Amino acid sequence: MKLNGIVLSPDPRLRQECAPIEEITPEIEHLVEKMKDDMFENGGCGLAAPQVGELIQLAIVDTDYSDESDYDPYILINPVIVEQSDNLVPYNEGCLSIPGINCEIKRPDHVVVEAYNLDGDLMRYEASGDLMCVCLQHEIDHLHGMTMFERLSPMQRVHALRAYQEALDRGAKPGDTE
């Protein structure tokens, strides 16, 4: 199911491994523009291609925009975490594909990610202890068929799934959080 252009859990596309992008085509460029629009319209800070129904390794991230004038997401094609710390810290995460709830997820507090941009240049992104660090990991998880539910313990997952169903019943839409 899609709402406001966003695929919602438990859509099976959110649980599939995405294919690497072999060539940056006009179709990929068009998809990036659509994803930018969808992310901005839903108030997100990151969006992965499977969240709009495309099973390819593409994500966009912008964690510090305040309005349309400074909105300029990083484009991550075939992103890979090349370094990460062993220190796990909790962060209260939301997801456009799982509206209406937040989940406390423990993740490394430092990552280095390599990905290609739309020009085909290999880029390196480093983030520590902030929303960018969490967002990079969250979006890369999506490209490997993992939602934040899979990062939870079994009991936390049961609680989160119940809260998510209640949020949907209340009419939660992408961008809504607790």
TrEMBL record:
The keyword Iron applies. Transmembrane segments: none annotated. The active site is at 139. Keywords: Hydrolase, Iron, Metal-binding, Protein biosynthesis. GO terms for biological process: translation. Binds 1 Fe(2+) ion. GO terms for molecular function: metal ion binding; peptide deformylase activity. It catalyses: N-terminal N-formyl-L-methionyl-[peptide] + H2O = N-terminal L-methionyl-[peptide] + formate. Pfam families: Pep_deformylase. Fe cation binds at residues 95, 138, 142. Its cofactor is Fe(2+). Its EC number is 3.5.1.88. InterPro entries: Peptide_deformylase, Peptide_deformylase_sf. It comes from the Bacteria. It is an enzyme of class 3 (hydrolase). Removes the formyl group from the N-terminal Met of newly synthesized proteins. Requires at least a dipeptide for an efficient rate of reaction. N-terminal L-methionine is a prerequisite for activity but the enzyme has broad specificity at other positions. Belongs to the polypeptide deformylase family. NCBIfam families: pept_deformyl (TIGR00079), PRK00150.1-3 (NF001159). This is Peptide deformylase. It comes from Collinsella tanakaei YIT 12063. The gene is def.
